[in-house]
Amino acid sequence: MVERACVYMEEQKNHIEILEEAESLVIDAIAETMDLYGVTHSIGRLYGVLYFSEEPMTLNQMSNSLGMSKPSMSTGIHSLVDIEMVQKVWRKGERKDLYKAEKDFFESFLSFFCKKWDRELSVNMQAIEKATEKLNSLLDTPAVPDAIQQKARKDLQQLQDSTQYYLWLKKLVHAFRSKELFKMIEEIDCD
């Protein structure tokens, strides 16, 4: 009887090791690719640990799991919260902050890239608008030499061309947020 119990425990230990190895493979891959999101390898590992955690974790739990200092953990978790890959959660009776990973990669992708593209649109369209005003003022001023007016016309054309890209990007962001693009992609047969 004792021998069977030992065999059973050994089998359980082997199963747990295989499970941990499988999770570790994915955590390592996530950590390796997190540079896309502007975060370090260690913060990527933090996300990976939270991704596989069935319950929200405190900073202390994360620190113990990864062997990182609590200040490093705090900085890392705030980076992940900022890019909406991790959310702070509340649990009745819990005094410490709890965090859980966004496990839907579609949502993470949408949130992260749409936010970045929105910023790109806003910054560049504002600059194009202001630059266009200045270039038009050069074209409307008779005393401006022909060479400068020619360059101003070329610059305006370039700005109009780049505006087409930003209008396309705006449509792309809308297609992602409305999930229209997802529907189109699902319909494509990749076999």
From TrEMBL:
This is HTH-type transcriptional regulator. Belongs to the GbsR family. Keywords: DNA-binding, Transcription, Transcription regulation. The keyword Transcription regulation applies. Gene3D superfamilies: Winged helix-like DNA-binding domain superfamily/Winged helix DNA-binding domain (1.10.10.10). InterPro entries: HTH-GbsR_regulator, MJ1563, WH-like_DNA-bd_sf, WH_DNA-bd_sf. One of its GO terms (molecular function) is DNA binding. The keyword Transcription regulation applies.
